[in-house]
Structure formats: structure tokens, C-alpha cells
Amino acid sequence: MDVKIEQSWKIALQSEFEQAYFKNLTDFVKEEYASNKTAIFPPAPLIFKAFDACPMHQLKVVILGQDPYPTRGHANGLCFSINPDVRPFAKSLINIFKEIEADLGQSIPENGDLSRWAEQGVLLLNAILTVQEGKPQSHQNKGWERFTDAVIQKISDECNNVVFLLWGGYAKRKGKNIDRSKHLVLESGHPSPMSANQGLWYGNKHFSQANNYLTSKGKIPIIW
């Protein structure tokens, strides 16, 4: 199957694209966009933006989310990221920025578009890449989870010295098979208000830890 995705990922994932489940997934997603017009997010050209913005050979950090924001105009194909004009910021994103501020002393940015991270080598990967408007997890169990499990396994097997940031129980379970002898895996609670208010998010210092690790491996740290 010819999937429109950045070339290094296309080569790495080609065997996955040939699987029967992926064809079924593709058929489902195409039908959803065709029948719901503008009510499926992100816009179809941005489904694989996480990959397009961060080629595999430039990969430094993986952040795992669950599925896109189901609010019109918010999702842009990168987990936790919102379009530049969206106000107010999503609550989880605000908490991410607050932790960066506390950890690194950086002020909260003017917009919540995390493309600037992706361009530095951060794969902002949702487990499920599409969603219906107003219906979180509406595209679960259609094949996306199997595909993104394969992506994580491919990274674990074929890359070296990648930082995986696993926030919350869902992400931790999804990253359970990562080879921790060759990658740094950092885990904490989710940045959602519920988790943060329970003391499971703030103070994890994941951003400074990630940069210290990258520096120790001779890689340029991320400007968070």
C-alpha cells in the first residue's frame, strides 16, 4: 500500500502498511472522512504529521499521547499540541508548560503549537491518530493501536539512545516493551488536571533529564 508519509518512516514501516489490518484501518478512516466531512480530526493531510515533521533518522525523543483533541480547530496531528490560534490552551498542555517553567526556568510560550519540538527530533505520537468531533476515543480498536505499537517497537529495535516520555498509565502500558538497555524511559503521572492535582505530574523534571541524557550521548538537547 502506498501511504503518504515521510520517506524514512515509509521505508521502516512498509511491512506494516502491507498488513491486512492496515488496509481495513485505511478503509475505515477513509469512510469516516468521506461520510463526516469536516467532523473528523485532525484534517486528513495531517494524520501522519508526527512522522512527517520528525524523520526517523532525526529522532531523539518520543512523547506518547492517546488520541487527538476532539474539539474543532484544535488537533494538528501532534500529541498534546494545538493550533497556534487556539485559546485557551488545553489544560494538559498548560500543565506541561508549567512543569517546563519549573524545571528549566522557561516562560510559558505564546502559543501551544508543538511543531517546534517536532522539528528538533521529538516524535509527538498519539496511540490513535484520528477521532470524531466531540467523541474522545471514538476511533479506538480500529487498528491504530496496533500500528503505533509497531512504530514503538521499530524505534526500540532500530534506533539508539532515544528518550521515551511515558505520562500516565496508558502510555506506560504502551511502552512496556521498550528496550531500556539502549534507551532512556522516563515515567510519571499524566499532565491532566486530575493527575497533576494528585501530585503525580509536577516535579518529574523529565525535560531536564531528557536533555541531560541527550547531551551525554553527544546529541543536541531540545529547546523545550
Written description of the protein model:
- Strand 5, helix 7 (169-174) and strand 6 (184-188) form a beta-alpha-beta unit.
- The strands form 2 sheets. A 4-stranded parallel beta sheet has the order 3-2-5-6. It has a two-stranded antiparallel sheet with strand order 1-4.
- It contains 9 helices and 6 strands, in the order ααβαβααββαβαβαα.
- It is 39% helix and 11% strand.
- The protein has 224 residues and is of the alpha/beta class.
- The chain has helices at 7-17, 20-36, 49-52, 91-104, 115-118, 144-158, 169-174, 193-197, 206-216; strands spanning 40-41, 61-65, 122-126, 131-132, 163-167, 184-188.
Query: On the 0-100 scale, what is the average pLDDT?
Result: 97
Distance linking N and C termini? 36 Å
Residue windows where pLDDT falls under 50 for at least 5 positions: none
Form type: globular
Count up the helices.
Answer: 9
What's the oligomerization state?
A: single chain
Encode the helix/strand succession as letters: HHEHEHHEEHEHEHH
